[in-house]
Amino acid sequence: MILWDKVAELAGNHTLQTVAMGSAALGIVSGVLGAFAVLRKQSLLGDAMSHAALPGIALIFLLTGSKAPLMLVLGAALSGWLGILLIMLIVNTTRIKSDSALGIIMSVFFGTGLVLLTFIQKRPDASQAGLDRFLFGQAAALLRSDVVTIAALGGVALAMVSILWKEFKLLSFDRDFGATLGYPMAFLDVLLTSFVVLAVVLGLQTVGVVLMSALIVAPAAAARQWTDRLGTMVLLSGLIGAVSGTTGAVISSAADRLPTGPMVVLMASLIVAVSLLMAPRRGLVWAWLRHRANNQRLCLETVLEDLCELAQQHTDPGHGHSEKMLKAISPGAGDIGRSLRELEERGWVKQTSPGHWAITEAGLREIPEIQTRYFGRDREATA
Amino acid sequence: MATQPALQVEDLTVAYLDKPVLWDVDLTIPPGALAAIVGPNGAGKTTLLKSVLGLLKPAAGQVLINGRPYDEQRRVVGYVPQRGSVDWDFPTTVLDVVLMGRYGRLGWFRRPGRTDRQIAMEMLGKVGMEKFARRQISQLSGGQQQRVFLARALAQEAEVYFMDEPFQGVDATTERAIIEIMKQLRAEGKTVVAVHHDLQTVPEYFDFVALLNVRMVAAGPVSEVFTHANLRAAYGGRMPFLSELAPESTGVIPQ
Predict the structure, then answer these.
(1) Is B72 in the A-facing interface, judged by CB distances under 8 Å?
(2) Least CA distance to B83: which residue of chain A?
(3) What pTM did the predictor assign?
(4) SS3 breakdown of chain B: % helix, strand, coil, rounded to 5?
(5) CA distances from A302 to A80, A112, A330 (A)
(6) Residue at a domain's end among A231, A258, A279
């Protein structure tokens, strides 16, 4: 009951309400746009963007002395965009590949940002207080005005995604085909990438430059596990973003001075891990269970077929054959003894004397079906 | 009134950095042709197709479709890209991919409606894939993927179709389905231009051929152009199976 009181107390807490609303809005926006980034294989671009945004934040503060969220977001966006442009420039004009270009730009910008931040903090006056929260994020510092900024700008991005749904789908799936239809794919590309930049910079104060990309990539990666439809994936990704954002932010705010970024990442990673393991069809657990069931069936059928063949080679079909012999015929068929017991339960084989086995009439009737199944599958595989 | 050629390429030159990929290529394909673009690896076949479709910017030259610049003729052009050019694990269905063929006619913002869905299903039927409409695209075999791309191009309801290696790595059933549809398109008076790599099937499948090796070696009706001399000019000495294709004496490969 103490826990319940704690929850009730937190729910009535205005600061916490602000934090929850802000991080939920942020989670939805970054989850939805992250889905497109992941599908377009631009997951790392989000990481480069967020790191590249740091010097922009510091420079805007140095130049204007302002800590107004809108100003800082503007600086972050400009510097993030500059980073992306430089990456494209490097890839297009030099022999350096995109992964190296990402690494170079990310570290150069982030390093510059850290230098500027340190310089700002060494200044005698106290006006810089709080800028360092852009590193790892501090959701507890969210104000109503920040929430309004996130909701308004994020809302614009989401509205554009729903209006340009068909165009963005085309861009993500088959860009060249879209271009032959007459759509300006380069423009759509810039637009969608800009929205991802927007989602990243909106989250910098809350989640921080170091870990913001997790809120772009993780919800999308988790959502992809559960569905094969783009619409469902995007909605689910937004939902997962909201859940991981909110829980992470609330936990970090409730605990004393726990940075938000790492908490959000932990929450998102938890959801990703569960999705990777448990999601039907794509999940690892199901794949493993399917694989094991398949394997067991194959072992059973191999033993049965071997016994059938042996029976055909003997004048007396009821003649028993030793387990050792079966093992020698098909050494890869796993635990022969277990397979034999399972087959005996089904009435397909019988034990003639201890350790010696023969196929039954019922077992022989199964053989044609097994063989057609294999031939059938072979045909499908070559088709 | 004289009929305009379906495709007219003049002085087309394309270069990657300083290396020419296509050099001063001229090509005129009459309407109603089933045309193959053949040539050795690196001859610029796909580059030619992509330049015609405006996906690559040529260094020089112009392209006319039905006698008009391509930008004004997008509505009448259908495109089947190479199957490997997209990620088949993309979360979408077969029907959804075919519906993309309707996007050009729909224009900005508008979503596909019931008519578009009917047309898409009809085209899936033509390629024998209507049962797969709701299927996630990653569950398709290579041949089925190719047929889905073909259905998408058919849904464009175009007049001139460009296909990039439509027979690449497909099963026999799909190859027959594709060639049936190509012949059906020709019967409807439409034009098909396909990048093709299997010389053996050129006389059987196509009636027009363009032999390309950076420059246009020869182009025209298969019966006139698909000769030993031209093939040797296009492929150089790299044609060990040339003698199997045609008796040396006639020069023309029998159809």
Answers:
(1) no
(2) A174
(3) 0.84
(4) 40, 25, 35
(5) 60, 65, 8
(6) A279
